[in-house]
Amino acid sequence: MNPVPGVTEMSKTMKPTTIMRHSTSLWSSIALFVGTQLDVFSILDNCPLTVKEVATALETKPHFVERLLNALVAAELLEVDGEKVANTPETSHYLVTGKPDYIGEHVAVNPYLKYWAFEAGIKTGETFKQGKAIDSFDYERLNFDALLSTFRGTMPVAVKAGEELAKRFDFSRYSTVADIGGASGGLAAALARAYPEVKYTVIDLPSVTPVAKVLLNEQGMTDITVIEGSILEGPCKQKFDALILRAIIQVLSPEHARTAIKNMGESVNPGGSIFILGHIMDDSKTTPVEEVGWYLINLNWEDEAGYYSEGDHREMLLAAGFMNIEREILPNGDGLIYAVKA
Q1: How far, in Å, CA of 342 to CA of 318, rounded?
Q2: DSSP of 251-266
Q3: Where exactly does CATH 3.40.50.150 map onto the chain?
Q4: Would you state the pLDDT for residue 139?
Q5: Is 226 in a helix, a strand, or coil?
Q6: Phi and psi torsions of 336, nearest 5°
Q7: 22 membership: H or E segment, kind and range
Q8: Nearest residue to 290 via CA among 159, 72, 114
């Protein structure tokens, strides 16, 4: 049998470098996930510790801990210090709870969100085979306890998003701000801490508002109004100076997304602002990789949801009467589109 021309020569020079890089990075990602889930980096903050000392802090078996610590060393997230292990300068700076530059609530790092991503990634092939979302998340049908557990888990991420918005924009210029689909109320609570003179409202579905009230009360934010509403049914009952929509447009179908933004255009005062946070791709829809990847696994939860780039958001906002449209990425990893109502 004659060899295919060029194949032998190619096999001598080409290596599966990219394939193996992505395949082996899974293990480092899992180690990081478990490390952040157990807050190992905070345990190691004060000084290097032995396996047994970390196991005591975690209240688990030393031979379990040995495997985790070695995996984190292999991932270059910890370093060996004699018989002990220690944080690297990077993990000490970014992964210790309470430090100023802690990124544990970054959307790509937070272990609660990471758990969902791993689980969805495993099931994506089955979603393709069945042709429908196999883990559809219906906020209107879930009971109170399930919603409370979910939004209690995501609340730290929402709080961080609010903190980043408060640093980036001057909310003192607004009298009224509404967090549409505010869920836990964490984002509005963070803004209220930074700008207490503003009146805040959280608007969400009837199944979610009882959860928002509980979580806001736990945060001591009893001055934030919580009301029922749906962005698909029509404009808000009153107009606001600023609207915030986080992780909501991206889970809607294109038709529903256009309707929602149109309704929001009728819910903000002239000269007011809209802030859309979430997963936003470049117009090529091949970058950034973390956003493109999220839209892939989102099929497991919302198979009719759109596939939104910056340009898609611009088109919908312009049609709804917004102008001065800008895009950026917040330090917590949230994509952001913000605009002004003409």
Answers
A1: 10
A2: GS-HHHHHHHHHHHHT
A3: 111-341
A4: 85
A5: strand
A6: -140, 130
A7: helix 17-37
A8: 114
State how far the Cα of 256 lies from the Cα of 322, in Å rounded to an integer.
18
CATH code 1.10.10.10 region(s) in the chain: 7-94
**What CATH number has the domain spanning 7-94?**
1.10.10.10
Give pLDDT tens digits for 182-213.
Answer: 999 999 999 999 999 999 999 999 999 999 99
Angle at 123 between CA 34 and CA 211, to 5 degrees: 70
State the CATH architecture for 111-341.
3-Layer(aba) Sandwich (3.40)
The string of pLDDT tens digits covering residues 78-95 is: 999 999 999 999 999 999
What is the rounded distance in angstroms from the CA atom of residue 113 to the CA atom of residue 306?
Answer: 20
Distance CA 337, CA 326 (A): 6
Q: Are 295 and 281 in contact (CB under 8 A)?
A: yes
User: For residue 306, which amino acid is it?
Assistant: G
- Show Cβ contacts of residue 272 under 8 Å, excluding neighbours closer than 6 positions: 174, 239, 240, 241, 242, 243, 340, 341
By DSSP bridging, strand 268-278 and strand 335-341 are antiparallel
Average pLDDT over residues 275-301: 98
**Can the peptide bond before residue 206 be classed as cis, meaning omega within 30 degrees of 0?**
no
pTM of structure: 0.94
Q: What distance in Å separates the CA atoms of residue 175 and residue 171, rounded to the nearest whole number?
A: 8
Residue tagged 């969400």 (tokens) = 204
Count other C-beta atoms under 10 Å from residue 149's C-beta: 11
**3 state DSSP class of 26:** helix
Q: Are 133 and 298 within 8 A, CB to CB?
A: no
